[in-house]
């Protein structure tokens, strides 16, 4: 029996390098070994984006085009839209009954969101319940592994706690899911903080070569290396962090060149830009195909949602039965 995976992304438009290295690249690899469900979690997008829903449709399309161009294969994996499988929402409601408020209030991811989005203490009911909905996404397919970036690990721990609590209160029907991290599970943005749309420090994987080049050019390096031949400190330089991630074969040489003052920042950035641009050559080509054929993208996700729904219905029935909610 293959293991089961669920993972999702909020449809916020085109994906960035953090989404790619922290999750998407891993999803593509895991499709061979696992039965995978990948969800466009539009309800989760509403938890903070309920006041600009006019962007949703376009954002969903752009994100799906990124997924398929990066190698998510609908022959192998089930791709769905969360709100097209309403059983997620119903299981979420059942889970909300057994989730202590204290688990949600001390959620460090929420605290980070409050800080990054400037929400102060002014948060909505839906946002507080974010991890409960996420637990439902994962458990409705009885997933045992969840490939995500490091920022999501705590949410998956809450999903485990909810599964454990359900199993002990009613019946043992849910596996305890585990996070599956990549080698680089926290990609820094061009300012060195975690890459994130809300911090406006992203590089999109679909950016045209010229734009990628400019983004890399604008990165701040070691501020003490002013002239070309000044010796640099790669350990505090974000461009070097990127060299380590994207260009590991040359990183020793680059570090030595920087420290000795032989390699200037302009040259170092040119090397990085070339590597990054090459990495996404094939991806950009495939993207052109899906951009011209958005109907194909739509059909895949509608079919996928139907397929997912059959499984989700079964689990929901099983959960309701365990709770004595079968009245016929
Ligand atoms: P989001 O856009 O927040 O829905 O994130 C989608 C996926 O990308 C999740 O698995 C995140 O953990 C992952 N992710 C987002 N930002 C980063 C980052 N800077 N580094 C690594 N993974 C990330
Ligand atoms: N919270 C995740 C994020 O922001 C998205 C998500 C929703 C998710 N449901 C999920 C990820 C279930 C993994 C499993 O990235």
Automatic annotation (TrEMBL):
'HIGH' region (motif): residue ranges: 11-19
Record's subcellular location: Cytoplasm
Keywords on record: Aminoacyl-tRNA synthetase, ATP-binding, Cytoplasm, Ligase, Nucleotide-binding, Protein biosynthesis
Molecular function GO labels: ATP binding; tryptophan-tRNA ligase activity
GO BP annotations listed: tryptophanyl-tRNA aminoacylation
InterPro entries, A to Z: aa-tRNA-synth_I_CS, aa-tRNA-synth_Ic, Rossmann-like_a/b/a_fold, Trp-tRNA-ligase, Trp-tRNA-ligase_bac-type, Trp-tRNA_synthetase
Binding site for L-tryptophan: 137
Entry binding sites for ATP: 10-12, 18-19, 149-151, 187
Protein name as annotated: Tryptophan--tRNA ligase
